[in-house]
């Protein structure tokens, strides 16, 4: 790796630090208003979500007829009674919302690719690619500074996210609200949380120590 690339990786890792601490305290009035207006509920990954679209078109499943992770299936109390491994919906879309009290979306991966679109707020995404490369970027409205309005995470890539203040000179946020469209459509059978055991298999210790707080416990 060149000296320039090493410096870039170092800068990426140094930015992966929490801005907000998860809390059991009630959400603020502004956050509660958004949760209520969009009928959001708590997500097993962290944050809140609501399904906004599920295409009725069914396509043959491109995936194995087994779950990617039994842990995920157990966490969501099993798959729907009518789930058929042979098919997937063409696409599904959700709102996803990180808040100061639920500021973290834990590392997970999906078999399907996911297209993300920003609605409001700022956050940082951390990706671990199959080759072990870590990618990190800010999503937010300041496109002049390189913040992203849309981004795609391919199937098989580990993804985590966490809330940032609304601007660099502030310490507060009313949350990060995005949409996610999954193609083929999302199913918990195609979902897996990253474990600490798996993390140490795919990253060297120096990088594990930086990102392990993003692993679901």
From TrEMBL:
Residues 33-194 form the DUF985 domain. InterPro entries: Cupin_DUF985, RmlC-like_jellyroll, RmlC_Cupin_sf, YML079W-like. CDD domains: cupin_YML079wp. Pfam families: Cupin_5. Gene3D superfamilies: Jelly Rolls (2.60.120.10). It comes from the Eukaryota. This is DUF985 domain-containing protein. It comes from Hypocrea virens (strain Gv29-8 / FGSC 10586).
């Amino acid at each position: 790796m060149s000296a320039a690339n090493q410096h870039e990786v170092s800068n990426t890792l140094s930015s992966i630090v929490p801005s907000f601490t998860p809390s059991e305290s009630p959400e603020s009035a502004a956050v509660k208003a958004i949760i209520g207006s969009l009928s959001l509920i708590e997500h097993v990954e962290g944050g809140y979500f609501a399904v906004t679209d599920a295409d009725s078109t069914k396509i043959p499943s491109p995936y194995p007829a087994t779950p990617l992770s039994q842990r995920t299936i157990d966490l969501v109390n099993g798959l729907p009674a009518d789930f058929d491994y042979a098919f997937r919906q063409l696409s599904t879309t959700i709102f996803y919302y990180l808040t100061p009290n639920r500021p973290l979306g834990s590392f997970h991966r999906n078999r399907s690719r996911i297209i993300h679109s920003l609605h409001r707020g700022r956050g940082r995404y951390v990706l671990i690619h199959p080759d072990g490369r870590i990618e990190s970027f800010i999503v937010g409205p300041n496109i002049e500074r390189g913040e992203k309005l849309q981004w795609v995470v391919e199937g098989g890539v580990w993804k985590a996210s966490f809330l940032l203040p609304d601007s660099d000179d502030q310490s507060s946020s009313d949350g990060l609200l995005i949409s996610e469209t999954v193609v083929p459509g999302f199913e918990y059978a195609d979902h897996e949380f990253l474990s600490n055991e798996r993390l140490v298999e795919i990253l060297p210790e120096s990088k594990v120590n930086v990102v392990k707080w993003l692993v679901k416990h």
